[in-house]
Fold this protein.
Amino acid sequence: MATTLEKLQQDIDQLAKNFANDQELDADKLRTKYLGKKGLFNELSKEIRNVANEDKKAAGKLLNSLKNDLETKLTSLEQQTTGSWVDVTLPGEQPSQGHLHPISQAIEEISGIFEKIGFTRVRYPEVDWDYYAFESLNMPDNHPARDEWETFFVDLPESKEKGKVVLTPHTSNGQVREMERLKSKPPIRMINIARCYRRQQDVTHTQMFHQFEGLVVDEGINIQHLKGTLDHFAKEFYGPEVKSRIRPFHFQFTEPSFEVDFSCHICHGTGKVRGKKCSFCKSGWHEVGGAGMVHPNVLKAGGIDPQKYTGFAFGWGVERTYTLREGLNIDDIRYFYSGDIRFLEQF
Ligand code: DAH
């Protein structure tokens, strides 16, 4: 029986439809079934014998296009399924996760240690008046002590009462601000942690760094309270055997003033490890920052009566405090702010 082109087209459409609806999922089996030697396509191609001679060319084209179509669909199916057998009971792959910057981790921990003993965490402006950074801290204009803070001045109009605008060179700018916030009414127990800025840049200094500042003002506050607070911090942050030590020093805003040291947690304050000089501290102690009893002039600037109230304050750098604990021996502190993920990932 002769096959017309229409009949051939119908059969081709049917085969394409069967292929599309085929329930077989295995790409290999599908290929054998449709394009194999004894497959459905070859079977169908035989019909060309029965097509009239003048239609053979057209029939060949129709069949060819069916074959190409099947081939494309099978290939894409094979690509989709190759090696993609999935064991759904396997644990999933963890996406890589970031974490807080080491300095943020340290800040959280430091806040927590002071909050536990009743301090309130506060933050004050990083761009502040000269008055809060210096003047109110017993450093009048042109006082030579100001030179110790290599201050950045901001090119903004001066205020008649509060002077120039600076990038805060230390967190002590929070002292009188906190007294003002509490309307000059002690008790004050503040921990102020913030960015500070100084004109300095080398392997142990960055132009931007962090400090934390403690301030306690109340009736009857004395050096023992300061010492107890420093010891509490030392134990919580560095370990139960670490002690604090205060040495006489000078700051304009405290009287008396001290430098604060912590005993080295590697050699336990002895300066020696197995008979040799401790290579981490060299002397048994690490100097970390300053402290003292709040100067009466500072209390007065904050509207507090120095006859009735006394207070202590301390302040030092987060970066140094943190690297000391970890025994990091970081040869260039600027790594912290380099944004280099290979460095940061190690914390
Ligand atoms: N602000 C001082 C500095 O940056 C550190 C300091 C010393 C803070 C004594 C204090 C203090 O609160 O009482 O060098």
